């Protein structure tokens, strides 16, 4: 199923890698070598570290400061793709820019596994300990003549409060754990309203996060690929079930 107006703004696949005593060291120079050698098109590079401070509880004096390098994040020129590398982490992001057509899940999956293989070869590693799939959607819903939106007209999942005591809802954030929604994994669904751009805005905007994490049985590339296919299928089912017919129609689905 494809959409003429997909709500997606970003999706990413994250791989957690098992380390061994023989693992290649990880610092900023190693991260730069990884990107320059295997991801030459990702020229916009950012580097992130972590600072740990130990403080004497009696005097509040700083006893020790430790700095460590955490990860590199590199973008393509158009910033529509991003690869992130850490000591035992590889993340591949696919980002929608403006009104460009969304490349689709297959492009995300294939690019992510290609990036993973390059990372594993470079790091001389071959064991995975976890995989996750994440989608971020922004849904814009037109307001009624009274300037309000009836959530139940568009969503099947939404906050509901008893009439009277609480009054109207002006904003919300809801997060749910859905352990049975994905075979071999755990799903988290988060929905929140977004601030208006201004008082004249005629649409309400809502951010929806879909996050699926494997149950730890994806120890190699093949099992990770199989799990990811099932996770994507299950996530798509939950996505469809999360909207009413009126809400789903906003995305203008094709071939449903």
Structure keywords:
nine-stranded antiparallel beta sheet; 11 strands; single chain; two-stranded antiparallel ribbon; alpha+beta; 256 residues
Gist?
The chain has 256 residues and is of the alpha+beta class.
Structural class: alpha+beta
The proportion of residues forming helix, as a percent range, comes to: 10-25%
Q: How much β-strand is present in the residues?
A: 35-45%
Low-confidence stretches: none
Largest sheet: 9 strands, antiparallel
How many beta-strand runs? 11
Q: Taking Cα atoms only, what radius of gyration do you get, to the nearest Å?
A: 22 Å
SSE series: EEHEEEEHEHEEEHHE
Mean pLDDT: 90
> Which strands sit side by side, in order, in the main sheet?
3-4-5-6-2-7-10-9-8
Characterization of the model:
With 256 residues, the chain is α+β, with helices and mostly antiparallel strands. It has a domain at 2-11 and 127-254. The chain is built from five helices and eleven strands. A hairpin with a 6-residue loop joins strand 8 and strand 9. Helix 2 (105-123) runs antiparallel to helix 4. The longest helix has 21 residues, at 221-241. The protein is globular, with a radius of gyration of 22 Å. The termini are close together. The model has no long low-confidence stretch (mean pLDDT 90).
């Amino acid at each position: 199923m494809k959409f003429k107006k997909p709500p997606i703004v970003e999706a990413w696949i994250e791989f957690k890698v098992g380390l061994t005593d023989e693992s290649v060291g990880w610092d900023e120079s190693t991260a730069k070598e990884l990107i320059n050698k295997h991801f030459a098109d990702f020229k916009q590079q950012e580097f992130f570290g972590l600072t740990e401070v130990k403080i004497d509880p009696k005097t509040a004096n700083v006893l020790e400061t430790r700095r460590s390098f955490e990860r590199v994040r590199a973008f393509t020129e158009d910033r529509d793709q991003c690869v992130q590398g850490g000591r035992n982490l590889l993340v591949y992001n696919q980002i929608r820019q403006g009104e460009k057509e969304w490349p689709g899940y297959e492009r995300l999956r294939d690019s992510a596994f290609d990036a993973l293989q390059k990372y594993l070869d470079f790091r001389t590693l071959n064991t995975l300990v976890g995989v996750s799939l994440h989608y971020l959607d922004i849904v814009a819903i037109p307001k009624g003549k009274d300037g309000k939106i009836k959530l139940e007209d568009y969503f099947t999942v939404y906050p509901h409060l008893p009439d009277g005591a609480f009054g109207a809802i002006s904003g919300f954030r809801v997060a749910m754990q859905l352990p049975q929604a994905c075979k071999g994994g755990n799903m988290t669904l988060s929905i929140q309203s977004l601030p208006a751009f201004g008082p004249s805005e005629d649409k309400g905007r809502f951010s929806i996060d879909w996050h699926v994490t494997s149950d730890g049985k994806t120890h190699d590339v093949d099992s990770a690929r199989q799990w990811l296919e099932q996770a994507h299928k299950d996530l798509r089912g939950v996505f469809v079930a999360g909207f009413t017919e009126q809400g789903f129609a906003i995305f203008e689905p094709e071939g449903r």
